[in-house]
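User: My instructor asked us to take a sequence, write out its structure as tokens, and then describe one feature of it. I'm not sure where to start. Here is the sequence I was given:
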Amino acid sequence: MLKTAEAVSLGHPDKISDYISSYILDRMIEQDSTVKYAVEVMVKDNTIVLGGEVTGKVDLSSVTEYVKSALREIGYDERYAVIWGDYAININRINIINMIGVQSPDINCGVVNDGWGDQGVFVGYACQGENFINRELYLARKLNRALYDIARTSDNLGLDIKTQISINEFGDIETAIVAIPMLRAVDLTRTVIDILGQEPKNIIINGTGIYRYHSSVADCGITGRKLACDFYSTACPIGGGSPWTKDGSKADLTLNLFARHLALESLADNDECFVYLSSCIGRSELPSGLIKTIKNGITAESDLLCVYPPHVLIKLFGLDQPVYTKLCRDGITQRILHNV
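Assistant: Let's start with the prediction itself. The structure tokens for your sequence are:
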């Protein structure tokens, strides 16, 4: 049986959107650590639409510069615009449509009393293996990040990169798929093999044979559309909404981080561990919690009582600090392993 996982780089248009929202949130937190923030982003060609709610002692007058700074951090800077021209998003031609309002008072009245800013279900996962994630996803991310690092300094390779890995029941790579923009076609087969540390049976690079137009020029980008890549691929259900567009009170990031944290704590010598949580808007207590472990095909389940209100978990994971772009760049699983 083959298992497959995909990874995308920050240069992908959906991740551009995620990163811009995360970057603006970090700037808001620098002004007011208690800011309430939920901003979605859409990117098409060189137009960027911001829509959502921000409430706090903050100034949004520099939002255009925030957007451009986020693009530069991704790598879509002035140098990139010279190299790629009309083939990619151009920082010199950015047009911002700002549709940001304030948080609904109906939501705010619950949040200020240390209740969650939304209802939802959340899932954490851990398994034996590198980074305690499923092997196919680990390899897809490893390949993607290495190629992205190479492209950051290249005059030929672009930043909008997708990788996909299929492994067999022995953990060997059956197929590696790479989509990476190229101004001039080059053979990256050896590079892919060296990064992965083994030779896949099949390597496919740019399946159509040509890939120049990329980023928001080739594809509309929207926040929260790469959740399978951001979380655990098909290894477990996806919990919550987009983690990259909201402050810690909204639960979509905080409780997904907490679920991953609990899964790692409970993995022990089991093969896999799943943690399921839920929240209620305006309430601090969690309606439900469940831990499920699997070892040698045998499943065990136990109820979980969660008495941590939002402010405790926000402080635990440092979500009252400007860490959101780092989380968006490195991912939830990396954050838990190295910082908590």
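For the description part of your assignment, you could build on this observation: The two ends are 35 Å apart (CA to CA). Try explaining in your own words what that tells you about the chain.
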